[in-house]
Design goal:
Shape: globular
Distance between the termini: 36 Å
Largest sheet: 6 strands, antiparallel
Structural class: mainly beta
Helix content: under 10%
Number of helices: 0
Length: about 250
Amino acid sequence: MFTFSLSLNLNAQNLVPNHSFEDTLRRRTPLYIPTDWIVPNSASPDYLTPYNDSTSFFLATAPKNYNGYQDAVEGLAYIGLRINSKVDLITREYVQVKLKQSLEKDSTYCFQIFVSLGDSMHYASKDQLGVYFSRNAITTNSMGAMPYIPQLIVSPNNYIDEKVNWTQFDLSYTANGRKDYITIGNFKDSSSVDTLNVASGGNKLDYLGTYYYVDNLYLGDCDSVPQQSTGLINLEKAAQPRIYPNPT
C-alpha cells in the first residue's frame, strides 16, 4: 500500500548535497575527494572521476577504473563501495553526508539511488546495501561493520547483479525524529552476507566479493522524485528494480 504523509513545509528540493558527486574539493594526493561527503570509518571507498590520474596505481578514474567500466548516470563521477569480500570478511566501506535540511518527525520522504555491480566482481549481493539516517554524524576507527541498523535496505529480496546498466531503486522513509545525516554502506557482519556467484569477473583476489558503483541520490518530496513515473514506491516495491539504460 502506498503511503503519503509529507509535512506541509517540506521544501520540494533534493536534500542530498552533491547528489551526483560532481563537485570536488582541491586535490588531496593522489586523488580528488567529493565535496560535502566524508568517510565515517577507517576504510577507503572510491571517488571515481576523470579528474583522478589515470596512471595512478589506484586507477580511481571514470568511466574506466580498477573494478570495471561504467558511465555516470549524470555528469562524470560516482562513488564505489566495497560491500563484502570473500578474502577480507571484515572490511566495510561507507560514505556519509549532512543533509541540506533536517528531516522532520513523522514526515515521509522518498529516497532514490542508482546502483551498478563492478564488471570485475564475481559476486552480487542482496539485503546488504543500507541507508542509515541519524541526528548526529556517526564515526568509528574500525574498518568493520558499523554497529547501527539502517532504516532502509536497497534491494532486500533480489541480488543486484546488473553490470552493464544502472539499476534504479525507489524507497520511502518516515522519520521517527529529527535526522540530519545519511550514511550508506553494508552494516551487516560477515555471518549475514548473502551473495550470488555471477560466473564472471577478474582474476585478482580483490574481485572475489561485491563492489557497487553508486550515483545520483535523491531524498525529498515524493512529488519531486526525478526519473520516476509511478509515484511513491514502498520498501516491498523497491525489491523490483527498474533499469535505467547506460547512455552508451
